[in-house]
Amino acid sequence: QVQLVESGGDLVQAGGSLRLSCAASGSSFLINLMGWYRQAPGKQRELVAVITRGGITNYADSVKGRFTISRDNAKNMVYLQMNSLKPEDTAVYYCNCKRAWGANDYWGQGTQVTVSS
User: Fold this and answer.
1) Each residue of 81-109: b (16+ CB within 10 Å) or e?
2) Which residues have a Cβ under 8 Å from the Cβ of 48 and sit 6 or more positions away?
3) pLDDT band at 19, cuts 50/70/90?
4) pLDDT tens-digit profile of 65-114?
């Protein structure tokens, strides 16, 4: 089992920055792929960014060039640096981890990011 706890969500003006953090605890072999997803009101949850234990990253097209995902394997932490925020980035952001693609997902409780115009 894995527990994920996010922090860092806030209200910010358009063009501003935020850094989300997620602390993972539990079975290390399950904390392989780590990532961030988001869900806006009335929309499906979508992938924002993912990072492997080896540091390979993948981003949604909508955040490329603005968001950066990173992780600290020693601390089982994953971060999302969000710059040049837009109102359309407003959503609940969820930390996620899994052993591999297609394996069981583990989710945090979510942290609210609100970007005002």
Assistant:
1) ebeebeeebbbbbbbbbbbeeeeeebebe
2) 35, 36, 37, 38, 59, 60, 63, 67, 69, 80, 93
3) very high
4) 999 999 999 999 999 999 999 999 999 999 999 988 888 999 999 999 99
Q: Distance between CA 8 and CA 28 in Å, rounded?
A: 24
Amino acid at 27: S
* Whole-Å CA distances, 63 to 25, 37, 60, 84, 106: 27, 12, 6, 10, 23
Find out whether 64 and 117 touch, Cβ atoms under 8 Å.
no
Residue type, 52: T
Task: Determine if residue 64 is left, alpha or beta; phi over 0 gives left, psi from -120 to 50 gives alpha, anything else beta.
Answer: beta
